[in-house]
């Protein structure tokens, strides 16, 4: 391995960076525990929400996919911690100086880190969403979410799109956290910033009394926009269409990664 | 540890109490010399009043009860003598009376008609059937005049809550329990003496028990006295009917007039009332309610004063970050070893940190909330009024409570930071337990879930938000009291106590772990 590293042309730098970051990622216990936490918390809260949900008539207007995916509200905080710590740990231990000495092309290092984080988070998110959907499918039909009340099969196209949207949302949140952590370089400040960005938009939209303003807050906030991607009923009244919502989250993530990349390029480590 | 081998570092002249004071002073010095932390606390103080501007912008809509859909047609909400919004619509059989006197009546029956099907569903059969909602009411009343919102005092029999005396919309006292029937009639009496009206009830018409005394400031000399019937209505054409006998007035009788107070087809009245006199009995049928307009029955333009404190969500986050870092930064930099060498009694070190961060949180919250109310009250008034007049005592509770909420959240963050010793997980954990339950209740769990999601606001640290409740909840008014309209399942201080219990438990765990673990 070390031989290939020495003779490899500079084009393979990204490959080496990926390999190095992957080794770092898999040889500490923290990330695995956090990703297990994403799955456990998302599924547990989703199942509890499904157990508490009740649809007495055809006009209850509750979205079964949103109920099943309630666990994403707390689950994304764990994904955000994983994203923040991926960068924050390098800075808090001083490891970043060593990393950047070994890998002077900082952006290659940064994006290798992002890619190494995205893979496992994607898998954990898929497990979390699949578990939540399964729990919803087992629990909800017994709570009035039946075809007679207008809820057809839970594997319809919209449900699949909601599940894919939820998986991508969690992954984008982890990357957003990674970008912001690179920008502020401090784990505590970064996690406060990320969770502020995630949770405060929907809280503000819920308490603001101006309906136009509330709708705009729902359009620009990453959490409410991401929730649009998880909706299966009442799509006409959403502030954004499901894919637009996911696009808004992707824009936030891209902005955060850009901010992180700029900070990394133009600042001393 | 080292204390066993080296002499105690404490100066003999310094008693125990003094040393704790020095410890607090040392922690305070640590806190105030980190510029980033001071900036974060400043952000907390500024963001809370700043969001009062955002929250006060109502954009022409009505409140949560009616929603944005009816923004164009906000019904005018009558206000009672205390300035509070009220529902005042019922059928009133009355005559004018002047000066002091007494009205007495015997009620032998209270029946009601309720909708068979919920609103919006069509049926060929009859729309209504017999039924009696808990707060259907019929009885005697003395009211200043027949316009909405005027002062009154009434003795009544209710659907399931027995005899009650109610006055000026918000006051309610119980009398005789049990339902009314021909074999168990209820005698009701109101005695006016100047501005005071005293209510009595009796099961036999000879032995009277006082139920309550109402003072109606500024009551005119000539008032309307008579009988009434009302049934809280949701637009389903439902009515209550009371049968009265032995109606007696000490004033000269001038004959009865029937009036639909508040008109028909507005303010929760869908059915015109009626009365019939025959053989010594008067039968009164009416719809509507005489009650405060709170919870979902409020449909006016005003906002609750609590909206001025919306920014607390925003201010809390930097404070939680700083509070967690107050201990985790020591672990990160190894300073904790120095701190523990200087203060070998580890529990006291944690206590000193809790005192400092709690005080910082309390002062920041107090200042921010006072500023937010000072800025927000005129803004909310201009934007459409306040939904409920708030007493000075309530304002003080909201301000002090917000300070306490922030202080306890900061101590919780410190304790969790000392437990997990890492910044990011500690901050995330505290934000999730304090903010996310509230967010879940407002968002995905809203509607269709009954009371279950409200348990999140009873058992998690998020229960503390109840300390900001500005709108009152009434036992005598069945309405939907939801968090999005400013109502919480726990009483203000009880909610704060729940948060305190969590912080105390976390602090105890942190103290135990700090003593047992290597630093």
Question: What's the structural blueprint in terms of helices and strands?
Answer:
The complex is a heterodimer of chains A (269) and B (519).
Chain A: H1 2-7, H2 13-26, H3 30-52, H4 64-68, H5 72-93, H6 95-102, H7 106-139, H8 157-184, H9 187-207, H10 211-220, H11 222-228, H12 242-266
Helix pairs in contact in A: 2-7, 3-5, 3-7, 5-6, 5-7, 5-8, 5-9, 7-8, 8-9, 8-12, 9-10, 10-11, 11-12
Chain B: H1 16-32, H2 35-56, E1 86-98, E2 101-115, E3 128-130, E4 137-143, E5 152-158, E6 163-167, E7 171-174, E8 186-193, E9 196-202, E10 209-215, E11 222-230, E12 239-249, E13 257-261, E14 274-278, E15 281-286, E16 289-292, H3 312-333, H4 335-342, H5 346-384, H6 392-420, H7 423-434, H8 436-442, H9 456-459, H10 492-516
Structure, explained:
- The complex is a heterodimer of chains A (269) and B (519).
- In chain A, 75% of the residues lie in helices and 0% in strands.
- Chain A has helices at residues 2-7, 13-26, 30-52, 64-68, 72-93, 95-102, 106-139, 157-184, 187-207, 211-220, 222-228, 242-266.
- Chain A has one domain.
- Chain A is built from twelve helices and no strands.
- Chain A is mainly α.
- Chain B is built from ten helices and 16 strands.
- Chain B folds into two domains: 20-65 and 300-516, no CATH class; 86-292, Exo-inulinase, domain 1 (Jelly Rolls, Sandwich).
- In chain B, α2 packs antiparallel against α3 (312-333), α3 (312-333) packs antiparallel against α5 and α5 runs antiparallel to α6.
- Chain B starts with 15 loop residues before the first helix and ends with a helix.
- The longest helix of chain B has 39 residues, at 346-384.
- Helices cover 36% and strands 22% of the residues of chain B.
- Chain B has 519 residues and is an alpha+beta fold.
- The chains are: A mainly alpha (269), B alpha+beta (519).
- At the A-B interface, α5, α9 and α10 of A face α2, α3, α7 and α8 of B.
């Amino acid at each position: 391995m070390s031989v290939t590293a020495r003779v490899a042309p500079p084009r393979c730098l990204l490959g080496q960076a990926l390999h190095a970051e992957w080794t770092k990622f898999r040889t500490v216990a923290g990330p695995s525990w956090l990703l297990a936490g994403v799955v456990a918390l998302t599924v547990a809260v989703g199942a509890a929400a499904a157990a508490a949900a009740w649809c007495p008539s055809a006009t209850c207007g509750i979205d079964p996919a949103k109920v099943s995916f309630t666990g994403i509200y707390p689950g994304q905080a764990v994904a955000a911690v994983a994203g923040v710590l991926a960068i924050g740990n390098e800075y808090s231990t001083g490891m970043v100086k060593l990393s950047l000495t070994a890998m002077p092309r900082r952006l290659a290092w940064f994006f290798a880190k992002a890619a190494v984080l995205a893979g496992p988070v994607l898998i954990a998110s898929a497990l979390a969403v699949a578990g939540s959907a399964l729990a919803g499918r087992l629990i909800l039909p017994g709570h009035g979410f039946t075809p007679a009340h207008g809820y057809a099969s839970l594997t319809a196209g919209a449900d699949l799109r909601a599940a894919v949207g939820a998986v991508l949302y969690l992954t984008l949140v982890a990357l957003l956290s990674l970008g912001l952590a690179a920008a502020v370089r401090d784990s505590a400040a970064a996690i406060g910033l990320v969770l502020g960005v995630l949770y405060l938009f929907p809280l503000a939209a819920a308490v603001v009394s101006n309906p136009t303003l509330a709708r705009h807050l729902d359009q620009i906030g990453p959490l409410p926009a991401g929730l649009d991607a998880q909706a299966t009923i009442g799509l006409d009244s959403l502030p954004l269409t499901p894919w637009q919502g996911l696009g808004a989250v992707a824009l936030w993530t891209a902005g955060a990664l850009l901010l992180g990349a700029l900070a990394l390029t133009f600042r001393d480590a | 540890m080292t204390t066993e081998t080296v002499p105690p570092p404490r100066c003999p002249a310094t008693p125990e109490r003094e040393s704790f004071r020095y410890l607090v002073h040392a922690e305070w010095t640590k806190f105030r010399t980190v510029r980033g932390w001071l900036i974060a606390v400043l952000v907390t103080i500024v963001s809370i009043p700043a969001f009062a501007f955002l929250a006060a912008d109502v954009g022409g809509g009505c409140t949560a009860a009616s929603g944005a859909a009816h923004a164009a047609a906000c019904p005018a909400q009558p206000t009672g003598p205390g300035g509070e919004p009220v529902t005042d619509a019922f059928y009133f059989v009355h005559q004018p009376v002047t000066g002091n006197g007494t009205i007495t009546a015997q009620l032998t029956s209270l029946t009601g008609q309720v909708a068979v099907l919920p609103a919006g569903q069509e049926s060929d059969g009859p729309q209504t059937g017999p039924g009696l909602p808990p707060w259907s009411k019929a009885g005697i009343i003395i009211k200043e005049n027949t316009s909405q919102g005027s002062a009154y005092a009434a003795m009544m029999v209710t659907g399931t809550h027995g005899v009650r005396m109610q006055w000026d919309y918000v006051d309610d006292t119980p009398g005789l329990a049990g339902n009314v029937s021909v074999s168990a009639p209820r005698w009701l009496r109101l005695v006016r003496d100047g501005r005071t009206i005293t209510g009595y009830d009796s099961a036999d018409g000879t032995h009277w028990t006082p139920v309550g005394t109402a003072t109606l400031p500024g009551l005119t000399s000539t008032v309307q006295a008579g009988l009434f019937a009302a049934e809280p209505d949701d637009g389903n054409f439902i009515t209550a009917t009371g049968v009265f006998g032995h109606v007696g007035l000490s004033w000269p009788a001038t004959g009865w007039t029937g009036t639909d107070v508040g008109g028909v087809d507005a303010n929760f009245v869908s059915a015109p009332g009626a009365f019939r006199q025959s053989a010594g009995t008067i039968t009164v049928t009416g719809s509507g309610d005489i009650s405060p307009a709170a919870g979902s029955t409020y449909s006016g333009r005003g906002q609750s004063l609590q909206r001025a404190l919306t920014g607390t969500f925003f201010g809390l986050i930097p404070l939680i970050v700083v509070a967690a870092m107050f201990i985790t930064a020591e672990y990160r930099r190894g300073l904790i070893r120095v701190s523990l060498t200087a203060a070998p009694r580890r529990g006291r070190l944690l206590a000193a940190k809790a005192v400092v961060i709690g005080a910082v949180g309390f002062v920041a919250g107090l200042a921010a909330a006072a500023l937010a109310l000072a800025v927000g009250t005129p803004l909310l008034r201009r934007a459409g009024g306040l939904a409920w007049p708030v007493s000075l005592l309530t304002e003080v509770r909201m301000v002090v409570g917000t300070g306490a909420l922030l202080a306890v959240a900061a101590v919780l963050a410190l304790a969790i930071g000392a437990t997990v010793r890492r910044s990011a997980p500690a901050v995330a954990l505290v934000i999730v337990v304090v903010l996310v339950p509230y967010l879940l209740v407002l968002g995905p769990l809203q509607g269709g879930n009954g009371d279950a999601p409200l348990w999140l606001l009873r058992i998690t640290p998020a229960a503390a938000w109840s300390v900001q409740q500005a709108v009152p909840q009434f036992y005598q008014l069945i309405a939907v009291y939801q968090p999005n309209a400013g109502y919480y399942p726990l009483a203000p201080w009880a909610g704060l106590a729940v948060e305190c219990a969590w912080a105390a438990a976390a602090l105890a765990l942190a103290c135990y772990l700090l003593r047992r673990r290597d630093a």
